[in-house]
Design a protein that fits this description.
By secondary structure, this protein is α+β, with helices and mostly antiparallel strands. Helices cover 17% and strands 48% of the residues. Strand 4 (45-49) and strand 5 form a beta hairpin.
Length: 110
């Protein structure tokens, strides 16, 4: 996802423009199989800038029958027209979103 948002450039010449806002929302539901335990889940996180907002909400739900992990990620990209010299700031936002988006859930066999 974020690889499409940014690329490393030594010097950007033209302004960058995104004329429309976009919202991308993903929900991941995992039922932990019997005989496995959760070793780690990411904490919920927020990345904000004038270019947009990324929110990752992670919840672990336990009941008598099973354990579920629910992660909801929402990325809102704002319309922008920025001069070339601000591209580094936009690229930093995209990298931070990419890091937050590429979390890992680790399950361990009991």
């Amino acid at each position: 996802f974020a690889k499409q948002m940014y690329s490393e450039r030594s010097q950007r010449v033209n302004d960058f423009v995104c004329t429309r806002s976009r919202t991308i929302c993903d929900t991941i539901r995992i039922t932990v199989p019997k005989g496995y335990a959760i070793e780690s889940v990411p904490e919920s996180s927020v990345v904000e800038s004038r270019y947009g907002t990324f929110v990752n909400s992670v919840k672990v739900l336990e009941d008598a029958d099973d354990v579920k992990i629910i992660s909801v990620q929402k990325l809102v990209l704002n319309p922008v027209r920025e001069p070339a010299e601000n591209y580094k700031e936009y690229s930093t936002f995209a990298r931070n979103v990419s890091k937050a988006y590429s979390f890992r859930i680790v399950l361990k066999k009991q």
